[in-house]
Amino acid sequence: MKAFSLSAVGSIILAGTLLSTSPAEAAVINDATSNNYIGFIADEGPTNPVDPTNPDNPNPPSPIDPEDPGNGGTGNTGALTLDHVSNIQFGTQKIMSGNTTYNAKNKDPFVQVSDKRGTGEGWSLTAKASEFKSDSGEVLRGAILSFKNGQVKSHTSNVSTPPTANDVVFDNTDSKVLMLAEVDAGRGTWLDVFSGTEGDNSNVQLNVLAGSADAQNYTATMTWELSDAPK
Length: 231
What we know:
Blueprint: H1 6-21, E1 80-85, E2 100-104, E3 110-115, E4 123-129, E5 133-134, E6 144-147, E7 151-153, E8 164-165, E9 168-170, E10 176-181, E11 188-193, E12 201-208, E13 218-219, E14 222-227
Antiparallel strand pairs: 1-3, 2-12, 3-11, 4-10, 4-14, 5-13, 6-9, 6-12, 7-11, 8-10
């Protein structure tokens, strides 16, 4: 009879142990499926103005615009809303001898629209400006108001196609399109921000003709219209 070494016997026992403790592949006995549900309806409530410099900011500054401190938003309600429009401040200026362009004092004037309909129909925002008139009814003849270089902003997580923004020159009383959301665009909250230098914002300007200004205050009224389909 052949003799086995102790080490050989130990190796056989160890191998047997390893084989006996290896897990067997599990067999699938049953399977099933389950479903997860959510439904949506349009939000008809108001949307507050967001921070025009950072729409993701959970704590917007108050006031939103130091040059427009009393403006807390329009308070409009519905599934498609115009939430905020800035009042533009040009300050008190000297009357110059020639044609002169005055820059806005507001650093970050903006307009804000929210589309919470969930239909993707698109929308358009238009505006028109009245003549600049003094308290006594005198017209600042030939004055031209302009907005340019608007930046379209939203929350960084917004996956919707953004609306487009236009430069506008209010040289008459016709309505001009500032923002346009085509079908399936402009969902959620969107801003058109005309940022510039604080106290001297050249992206919002008023051109005044020589000899047109009297030494008094003038005001022009902007009329904004949000339509529920692109124009």
